[in-house]
């Protein structure tokens, strides 16, 4: 991290974002003006060692005395300027300041004056707000954002000492059927607006591309407005946790020096490692651009208890896992009136940990030997509300890699190049169904040069436009072709072990068959391959008397083969998706075995011990850090973590780089010097205990 002097030197400079590493966001509600404690919030800035803040300014409600007609100013503001007061307090503390605007809704008077600014339903009705019917939802692609919000942004940037404008809920809420969207879409594409969200429908894909183009151009337009008033200033869009799927990547990279993942906490059975996944996804698209993780103090569920307080352990672990994978912590609190302050101690503790680790870890670059391909070409064809339907395959592979304690990156297939692939020894591709010919060629060359590939199900079965190929685009790598239509979904399926000596069969002693998936692709194998598992032909699951196999297992369920200098494992069934749904231990072991066989030689960083640990590694000159996040908890895949269960009996083993003959280790969180031993070119480190997390810093010498 920058020193204090370096951080201060970045104030109001084009590189201000480099020193913006710990964020506090205060999202005001309309009755906050005159009813909140300004000194309390300035004290929060101090206690958390925050060096940056995001503050509610305008849009749906203005928290400053706006002069713009139709820009609704809080009726509680009186003669005050709460936004200006908070900006002044932050600047007195040498903090970076970002102003938040929310353009997604307007009051009824705006809708009456400018109905053309309002989103229109497929039935031709002005879209009323789903939660507050007195408000109307705006059209993101037309005049409201382009004209009215441009003037709001200009007024804020001109009148206040800020570094950037951050827009929340600015990019629309589904297809808008207003006159502007109808005519502009027809003009640009020659089509009528889609009536269904179907990733295989060319009209739907055309709408997604049109929306990307319009919204990306809007980012550039708003960026220019901010910069015209504040030369060092920028516009920063809220992008959710979509890994930039809804925008043109190159343009957003050009305009935005820093970005934020708006994934405020877990919902349902989302695991803690999802915070780190957000960091990996963004890094896999945006490279080393700084990214913040927006974390809420409240419980994040569909029922929207925004004044609730999440458990301290939940807040702490969510932030720590994000930090381990390179995300900058960002606290967001809705409502400046504090009804329950139990969220503050875990934030202060976690921010203090970040401040302690940052001077060391910021000098090291995230690194890994394995990359999980983020199938962006496939996922971007789905609406953001529907992507969960397509992500199960990748989530299953992700969880299997975490269980296997294998450090790995995420790499978007949108930015995949030969050089990017060659940074890794293994590429895992859960189900990249949509791949272009060029992308398939890149993966083929990667394996032929010596890389390893583990993939499954429909990978490369469709081109980048969703058109089904007559055969896999990666058929030559698989050594197999499609022999018929995809089968399933079916119940009660199994795969049988074929032999007992292949490494992929390890750990299944005593079993002749294990659970299969629910969908599979029949294959015609035309290349040499090991087949450690074969499909048991499907048989009934009822009546009970009929539950038995009628035919021998013949069709390949796993292909493992040498291709050029590399190795390939292909599962012609939905192993990632079904593992994510069922989390069966045999599927975890099978994927683990496949990863290790494909690698061929031991991983550079290995870890052993009881429990579930998420691992991130970083490299620098003569140093490597191994960050272990303790996910071990009976509620690790549910929101309400109640406590942290310490882990004992943990070890880390790191292979020394060429030329290194000595190595030392230090534990950065506990500040202990651990017991170590140097054996066969590897440093073995014993960890006395991991509470929430530990960082092993290894230094090598000649």
UniProtKB/TrEMBL annotation:
One of its GO terms (biological process) is carbohydrate metabolic process. InterPro entries: Beta_galactosidase_Trimer, Class_I_gatase-like, GH, GHL6. Coiled coil: none annotated. One of its GO terms (molecular function) is beta-galactosidase activity. SUPFAM superfamilies: (Trans)glycosidases, Class I glutamine amidotransferase-like. It comes from the Bacteria. Residues 397-467 form the Beta-galactosidase trimerisation domain. This is Beta-galactosidase trimerisation domain-containing protein.
């Amino acid at each position: 991290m920058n020193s204090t002097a370096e951080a201060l030197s970045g104030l109001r400079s084009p590189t201000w974002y480099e020193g913006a590493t710990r964020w506090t966001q205060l999202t005001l509600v309309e009755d906050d003006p005159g009813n909140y404690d300004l000194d309390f919030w300035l004290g929060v800035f101090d206690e958390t060692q925050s060096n940056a803040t995001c503050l509610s300014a305008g849009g749906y409600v203005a928290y400053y005395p706006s002069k713009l007609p139709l820009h609704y100013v809080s009726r509680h503001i009186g003669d005050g300027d709460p936004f200006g007061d908070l900006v002044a307090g932050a600047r007195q503390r040498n903090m970076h300041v970002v102003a938040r605007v929310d353009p997604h809704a307007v009051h009824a008077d705006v809708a009456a004056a400018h109905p053309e600014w309002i989103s229109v339903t497929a039935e031709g009705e002005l879209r009323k707000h789903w939660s507050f019917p007195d408000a109307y939802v705006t059209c993101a692609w037309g005049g409201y954002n382009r004209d009215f919000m441009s003037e709001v942004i200009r007024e804020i940037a001109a009148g206040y000492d800020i570094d950037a404008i951050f827009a929340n809920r600015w990019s629309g809420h589904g297809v808008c059927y207003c006159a502007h969207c109808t005519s502009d879409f027809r003009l640009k594409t020659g089509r009528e607006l889609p009536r269904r969200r179907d990733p295989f429908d060319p009209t739907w894909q055309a709408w997604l591309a049109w929306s990307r183009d319009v919204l990306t151009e809007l980012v550039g337009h708003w960026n220019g407005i901010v910069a015209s008033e504040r030369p060092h200033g920028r516009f920063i869009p809220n992008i959710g946790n979509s890994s930039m799927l809804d925008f043109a990547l190159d343009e957003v990279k050009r305009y935005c020096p820093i970005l934020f993942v708006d994934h405020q906490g877990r919902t349902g059975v989302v695991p803690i490692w999802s915070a780190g996944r957000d960091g990996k996804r963004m890094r896999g698209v945006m490279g080393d651009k700084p990214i913040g993780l927006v974390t809420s103090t409240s419980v994040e569920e569909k029922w929207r208890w925004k004044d609730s307080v999440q458990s301290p352990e939940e807040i702490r672990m969510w932030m720590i896992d994000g930090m381990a994978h390179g995300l900058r912590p960002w606290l967001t609190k809705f409502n400046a009136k504090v009804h329950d302050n139990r969220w503050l101690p875990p934030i202060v503790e976690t921010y203090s940990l970040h401040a302690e680790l940052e001077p060391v870890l910021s000098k090291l670059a995230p690194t890994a030997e394995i990359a999980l391909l983020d199938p962006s070409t496939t996922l971007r064809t789905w609406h953001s509300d529907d992507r969960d339907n397509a992500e199960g395959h990748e989530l299953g592979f992700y969880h299997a890699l975490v269980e296997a304690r294998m450090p790995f990156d995420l790499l978007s297939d949108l930015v995949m190049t030969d050089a990017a692939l060659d940074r890794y020894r293994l590429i895992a591709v859960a189900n990249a169904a949509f791949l272009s010919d060029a992308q398939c060629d890149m993966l083929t060359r990667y394996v032929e040069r010596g890389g390893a590939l583990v993939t499954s199900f429909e990978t490369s079965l469709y081109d980048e436009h969703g058109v089904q190929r007559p055969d896999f685009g990666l058929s030559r790598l698989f050594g197999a072709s499609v022999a018929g239509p995809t089968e399933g979904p079916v119940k009660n399926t199994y795969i049988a072990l074929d032999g007992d000596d292949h490494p992929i069969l390890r750990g299944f002693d005593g079993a002749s068959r294990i659970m299969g998936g629910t969908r599979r692709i029949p294959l015609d194998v035309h290349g040499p391959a090991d087949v450690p598992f074969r499909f048991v032909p499907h048989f009934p699951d009822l009546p009970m008397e009929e539950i038995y196999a009628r035919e021998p297992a013949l069709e390949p369920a796993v292909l493992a083969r040498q291709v050029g200098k590399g190795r390939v494992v292909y599962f012609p069934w939905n192993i990632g998706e079904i593992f994510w749904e069922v989390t069966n231990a045999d599927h975890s072991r099978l994927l683990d075995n496949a990863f290790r066989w494909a690698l061929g030689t031991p991983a550079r960083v290995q870890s052993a011990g009881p429990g579930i640990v998420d691992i991130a590694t970083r490299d620098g000159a003569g140093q490597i850090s191994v960050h272990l996040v303790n996910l071990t908890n009976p509620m690790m895949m549910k929101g309400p973590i109640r406590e942290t269960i310490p882990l004992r009996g943990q070890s880390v083993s790191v292979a020394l780089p060429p030329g290194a003959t000595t190595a030392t280790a230090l534990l950065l969180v506990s500040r202990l010097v651990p017991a170590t031993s140097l054996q066969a070119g590897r440093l073995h480190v014993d960890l006395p205990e991991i509470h929430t997390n530990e960082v092993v810093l290894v230094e090598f010498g000649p």
